[in-house]
Amino acid sequence: MQFIDANIFIRHLTRDDPEKAQACLELFQKARQKEITLTTTEAVIAEVVYVLSSKRLYNLPREEIRRLLYPLLSLPGFKLTNRKMYLRALDLYATYPIDFEDALIVAQMERQKISEVYSYDRDFDQVAGITRREP
Q1: Which label site among 36, 48, 95, 134 has the fewest CB atoms less than 10 Å from its CB?
Q2: Res 58: pLDDT
Q3: End position of a domain, from candidates 80, 95, 121
Q4: Which pTM was predicted?
Q5: Residue 37 · residue 1 · CB < 8 Å
């Protein structure tokens, strides 16, 4: 198993460096065909979303980020603990105007059947089924 860093996703998805983009595509194709097994972490996925959505860098819309990342995280040769939670977080991120980190929190809450969160972050107020409370 090999670990994949954020810049591999970024080079592949943005194709801003054609040579590196091609090498990254070949890597993801190997994972698609189960020739290799890749893995990553929540922090890397959050970094990819942050970079792709950054107004100073790529400024991609939320739904586009979801559309681009979903198939990569679903590859047969991509092993992720809590894959469903990451995919759900992408869905939430594309649906609600919340940060990806908050989408991860909501996905984790749903997984654990928790509907209340203590937070001063009012973004949670926008998510159906979540009740935000302040201490």
Answers
A1: 134
A2: 96
A3: 80
A4: 0.91
A5: yes
